[in-house]
What does this fold into?
Amino acid sequence: MAYDENNIFAKILRGEIPCDKVHENSHALAFKDINPQAAIHVLVIPKGAYVDLTDFSANASAEEIAGFIRTVGETARILGMTTDGYRALTNIGEFGRQEVPHLHIHLFGGQQLGRMIKPPEK
Ligand code: AMP
It folds into this structure.
C-alpha cells in the first residue's frame, strides 16, 4: 500500500492539525488519542512516512527503528505507566482494523485493562 501524504497523522506531523503532545524528538511524536479507550491512551508515531509496522520493519533504517522503539519506551516512562504496567498495540491493515494509514503504537494504561482480544462486533 502506497503512503497517503494526506492521512491525518501526516497532517499532524506537518503542523497542519493540532495534537495534544506528550513527547517529541527527531524520531517520533507522541500525543493523546482523541477518542481515549483507557484512562491513559497515547499514540506514538514515527516521523518518517511509513504505512504500518510491516512497511516500517522492512523499509526504515536501523537508526529510525531504534529511535522509534526507544521513544515508545520513553513515552511510557513519561506517562508514569512502567511500574503498574500498560499495553502497547499496533493495528495493521483490514483485519487489524487500522483506521489511520501511518504507523502508530497505541499505549494504554492508567487502569486495569481488559482481555487482549474481544470477539468482533457484529
Ligand atoms: P487505528 O484504528 O489503530 O488506526 O487507530 C487510529 C486512532 O487514531 C484511533 O484511536 C483514533 O481515535 C485516533 N485519532 C484519529 N484522529 C486523531 C487525531 N486528530 N488526534 C488524535 N488521535 C486521533
